[in-house]
Design brief:
106 residues, alpha/beta, 4 helices, 4 strands
C-alpha cells in the first residue's frame, strides 16, 4: 500500500490526489496527519463531478484533443494487438505490464 508513505514526497502545502484504489481502500485516515506533514491538501476526484453534463463533456474533450493534436500532450502506445489477442491485452493491463495504452486493431 502506498499510503501514507506517498505523502512524504510532497512539499509543505502540497496536494495529494487519490485517483483510483488499485492498492485497496484507505482506512483509518487521520486528518491531523495533513498538518503534521506540512499543511497538505487532499482530494479524491471523480469523473462525474467534473463532467456532469454534455457541455462540460464537450469542453473537456476539446481541451484534451486539442492538446494531443498540437503536441502539448503526448500519448504513449505500449503495443498494438489484433482483436484475436484481446485476452493477452487484458492480461497485460491487469498484470500492470504496460506503460501506455494498448490499441486493438481489427
Amino acid at each position: 500500500m502506498f499510503f501514507p508513505g506517498s505523502m512524504d514526497c510532497l512539499k509543505p502545502r502540497g496536494l495529494w490526489v487519490l485517483f483510483g484504489q488499485a492498492s485497496g481502500s484507505i482506512t483509518d485516515f487521520n486528518l491531523a496527519m495533513l498538518s503534521a506533514k506540512g499543511s497538505l491538501f487532499v482530494t479524491r476526484p471523480t469523473l462525474f463531478s467534473y463532467i456532469a453534463n454534455r457541455a462540460e463533456y464537450n469542453d473537456a474533450s476539446h481541451q484534451l484533443y486539442s492538446r494531443v493534436s498540437d503536441g502539448r500532450l503526448k500519448v504513449y502506445i505500449h503495443d498494438k494487438m489484433p482483436l484475436e489477442k484481446i485476452v493477452e491485452a487484458h492480461n497485460e493491463l491487469e498484470g500492470r505490464k504496460t506503460k501506455g495504452g494498448i490499441v486493438i486493431t481489427l
